[in-house]
Amino acid sequence: xxxxxxxxxxxxxxxxxxxxxxxxxxxxxxxxxxxxxxxxxxxxxxxxxxxxxxxxxxxxxxxxxxxxxxxxxxxxxxxxxxxxxxxxxxxxxxxxxxxxxxxxxxxxxxxxxxxxxxxxxxxxxxxxxxxxxxxxxxxxxxxxxxxxxxxxxxxxxxxxxxxxxxxxxxxxxxxxxxxxxxxxxxxxxxx
Length: 191
Description:
Layout: E1 11-14, H1 18-27, E2 32-35, H2 37-45, H3 50-64, H4 69-83, H5 88-101, H6 109-115, H7 119-134, H8 141-155, H9 168-172, E3 177-178, E4 181-182
C-alpha cells in the first residue's frame, strides 16, 4: 500500500492479528492502533461459561458505549470487580489491549461508530468470500482479483459517507481531540 502511494494513516482499525500490527509498525510507525471491539468482545466472552456470557456481554457493552475514556475506565473497574477474581483471563485480555481498544476517544464522536469495529469493512468482503466459496475458489489470481474488483465495485454503490465526514479534514490536519472534544492550543490532553 505504501508503494502504491498510501500516506501514513492516522489510525488503523483491526483485530488482534499480531503479524499485521507488526508489519504496520514497520511500515507506518506513526499510525495509531484501534482494536476491533467486536472481535475483542468475542474473545473476552469466550473466557466465560455459557451461563455468565450474556451478563458479561452487557457489562462489556457499557464499557464500549461509554461517553468518555474516564467513563470507560470506570465501567472497566465495575467489570473487574464483578468478574476479575473468577475469570482473570477475561480481564487480562481487556487490560492487555486497553490502550488500543480506547484509541477512538482521540477522534470526533461522529467517527466512533466507524472506528470501534472492523465489521463494515468485513461485510464489504463477505460477498467476495461467499462467491469464492460457492465457486470453490476463483481459479487463478487474475480471476480472483477481477471477481473481487467487480463485486466490490458493485457493493460501493450502496455505501454511504461516514458520520462526521466534514471532520476528516481536521483529523488529517492533526487537530487533537480528547473524548470527542477538539483540544485547543492552550489545552493539553490528559488521560
